[in-house]
Amino acid sequence: MNSFYSPAELRELGLKEYGENVLISRKCSIYGAENISLGSHVRIDDFCLLSGNIRLGNYVHVAAGCLFYGGNAGISLGDYITTSSRCAIYALSDDYSGLHMTNPMVPEEYTAVTQAPVRLGRHCIIGSGCTVLPGADVGEGCAVGAMSLINRSTEPWGIYAGVPARRIRERSRELLELCREFEARL
Questions:
Q1: Per-residue pLDDT averaged across 39-50, rounded?
Q2: Going by C-beta distance under 8 Å and a sequence separation of 6 or more, which residues neighbour residue 38?
Q3: I need a labelling partner for 134 at 20 to 30 A (CA). Which of 43, 56, 89, 93 fits?
Q4: Strand duo 17-18 + 137-138: pairing
Q5: Is this structure's pTM higher than 0.85?
């Protein structure tokens, strides 16, 4: 038996929309499928969790163990994105100040959940174990080193690493020529 949903099973998930060649592991947890849009050539591996408003572009790979909490604000990944294993992307967060209660089991009037959209531009790669917090806009072409924390927006075509992540150098744009060649073949 294939570990990915069949085309018939994929239709039954109730996704908002999805393109061609979409592979979602049967071991992936999806909450609010009606709020999730997937482009074409998307693969989501084992033990991932997708919840809330989420939009994935074309040619996106979500490796094993990734967690995407889109809430109402939403998470948007452009085309040609890779999120390595165990990445967590949050478009919402509890208030940790002690002025409010926390967790989804407490009535909303006692909590103060912050929500802000998260966007990853085209050609980003997010290393294993990274965390992206609400409001971050990861610029086109960015590469983020393993175990990094993205707590604010990044400039395009940089390599970022650390906690919090800092730009450590420029990333080559040669992959754009490879992309043009690849797309010309389509």
A1: 98
A2: 15, 17, 18, 19, 22, 55, 56, 60
A3: 43
A4: unpaired
A5: yes
Q: Which amino acid is at 141?
A: G
User: Are the C-beta atoms of 58 and 42 separated by less than 8 Å?
Assistant: yes
What whole-number distance in Å separates Cα of residue 1 and Cα of residue 141? Answer: 37
Residue type, 148: S
* ∠ CA 43-49-53, rounded to 5°: 90
Structure tokens at 110: 């006692």
Q: How many CB atoms lie within 10 A of CB 83?
A: 30
Beta bridge partners of 53: none
Closest CA to 141 of 163, 123, 129, 159: 123
**What pLDDT does 17 receive?**
98
Q: What are phi and psi of 14, to 5 degrees?
A: 80, 25
